[in-house]
Amino acid sequence: MSDAAQSRESMAVFKTRVGAAFPGSHAVFRGCDLHTQLQHLGWVDLLLFGITGRRFCAEQLRLLESLWVLTSYPDARLWNNRVAALAGTTRSTPDLAMTAALGVSEATIYGHRNEVRALSFFVRTHQRMQGGTSLAECIADHLQQQGKLAGYGRPLASGDERIAPTMALARELGLADGPHVTLAFEVDRFLQAQGHALRMNYGALVAALGADLGFSPREFALYLFPIFMAGMPPCYLEAADQPPGSVFASDCEAIRYEGCGKRAWP
User: Fold this and answer.
1) What is the pLDDT of residues 78-115, one digit of tens each?
2) What gap in Å lies between CA 240 and CA 78, rounded to an integer?
3) Cβ distance 175 to 60 under 8 Å?
4) What is the pTM of this model?
5) Which of 90, 104, 142, 258 is the most buried (most CB within 10 A)?
6) Could you tell me what percentage of the chain is helix, strand and coil, using 3-state DSSP and rounding each to the nearest 5?
7) How distant, in Å, are the alpha carbons of 1, 8, 9, 35, 252 from that of 14?
8) How many C-beta atoms lie closer than 10 Å to residue 111's C-beta?
9) Angle, helices 135-146/112-130, rounded to nearest 10 degrees
């Protein structure tokens, strides 16, 4: 076989370890037959198996799903829900509305990137403290390199109403005492003792629980993708049921434009 023929043959073969569909026959999902071996799984169980390649126990699955539930706020004033509502008021399709709203949920300050950075901080700090480095030194080094501590501080409020019910469920499920959750509260106490106004927010707790469950930063980012999803459809539907353009409408006089002036189009 010529080199060109071998090249064409190799390009025609799709090599994968995660799965494949065989229309009219079956589908493979991470080495398992989707329709005969995995059909009993819940959606969250299947999602996490696809992300991590490993199975979680019932208690872990319940906790991970509850982390989505407890932050599903159907409030169109929230930054990502506002996108869903604006899509509804412009009569966008549901798919486009949800996709756009979920896309902006990866924001650095308010969104998923905050939790991913917090998880990385907890894992790194726990490892260093296991080697004898003090928490104070770990925090000082982190702040010197990155300037802020993800998972601590919250716009508009000093406390976070989601922490108490999350910890209550985690204790009920026997998942509240992992080393990274313990560290998250230790950091919170350290910041208070140093006179900082920053208190632990939900992102820090979610990240610490994720670290205790063995997520890598990339796996955790994929798990977080739908975390705000349940609160978005109500915002979209309410806006779509009102006259077009009536949700978050702004008068032209309220817009201060400082860009280029009017231009003549050929």
Assistant:
1) 999 999 999 999 999 999 999 999 999 998 877 899 99
2) 17
3) yes
4) 0.88
5) 142
6) 55, 5, 40
7) 20, 12, 10, 22, 54
8) 20
9) 140
